[in-house]
Amino acid sequence: MTDGSRRPLPPLLLSVLVLGIADSMIGPYLVLFGANEADLSPLRVGVFLSLISASGLVVSTWLGRRYDRAPSRWPALVAVLAPAAGYLTLTTTTSYPLLLIVGVGLLGAGMAAFPQLFSLARTHLDRAGGAAADRGTPALRSVWSLAWALGPVAGAALLAAGGYDRLMQATALAFVLVAVSLVLLGATRGAERHVAPDAGGEPAGWRPGRTMLLVAAGFTLFHTAMLAGSVVLPLFVTRTLGRPEGDVGLLFSVCAFVEIPAALATMLLPRRSPKRIVIVSAMALLALFFVLTAVSTGMPLLIAAQVVRGIALSVAGALGITYVQDLAPEATGRATTLFANTLTAGSLISGVLAGATAQALGERPALLVCGALALGGGALLVAARRRTGVATASRG
């Protein structure tokens, strides 16, 4: 057994940290690159970003299947080296047709990096034995939150110091550093996996059955609520409450920093604790966040609401990955990709939904609609559990 197999967590932590910094460095500024640097219309920027997301769905699904056939590092290496080449290419052109080609052919692959890293983590941590997988995933999720607290600040500094070229080069370098950390991880071999007591696994020769599809739909609603809320919140704070734009950044920073200890706290849960109940509770907490925000008139309650939001996002994110993996222990790559794709699907829906709802009803009602979506996600997870219980009873 390689050193990487004996001590997988350090290189995995490094991989997730650097990937999170790369994603969060470039994420807030890719829209501005299209609008300001490439001089694209809002429609063209939207098409560019949507095609990247669509490509990410396809590539993530393909690489997830490849990983399940033969667990290895090469799908993850593809997912980080392709966007590295893509961001370097963006320093050489602003031609719209070329931007679309780069987005679909290279940048979309970067959306597969997150599920690939967490698939590798499950395989390596399972081989480490004990409760390593249950303890390791929350640790990785907390590092991801830390990266998202640091990355936007780093991106702003790079943009101010050297413009978009410097930002793109640094993002490409970060993706290359993820590849280096994957080399340090060591060879990947499949591991025997056990289904969690409350999971209700899928049959061999896995395809997502009704239980998994209900769970995926639940997380899609949850992520749609989360992302739509991120669109509505700045409008609510600056337009409805008349607060300065800097308050928006403060609120998002509070949430990001709360996510770190909240994700680590999930490591204290007993290994056989019912993850589904905790996740449903986190979805209810997200709904509470939207209610608290909608009734806010000043910063104290807004900040308190962000604490609630940080707990909800970190708990659902940390436990959601392992919960979905436990539903299909023989298909870690595809299950992890399915979970990640619920976030991608949410991103495709949330922008139009948030904008249309806020325009038609106003910001406060739009926040409450987001809360209803979060509750709907929890309801679907409850329904999925009931279906599993019925199926188990019928087999008995």
Short description:
This protein is mostly helical. Helix content is 82%, strand content 0%. It has helices at residues 3-6, 9-37, 42-69, 74-90, 96-107, 113-128, 132-185, 210-240, 245-265, 275-294, 299-327, 332-361, 363-395.
Tell me what the structure shows.
- The protein has 396 residues and is mainly alpha-helical.
- It is built from 13 helices and no strands.
- It has helices at residues 3-6, 9-37, 42-69, 74-90, 96-107, 113-128, 132-185, 210-240, 245-265, 275-294, 299-327, 332-361, 363-395.
- Helix 3 (42-69) runs antiparallel to helix 12 and helix 10 (275-294) runs antiparallel to helix 13 (363-395).
- The radius of gyration is 20 Å and the shape is globular.
- The two termini are 41 Å apart.
- Mean pLDDT is 85; it is low at 1-5, 191-204 and 388-396.
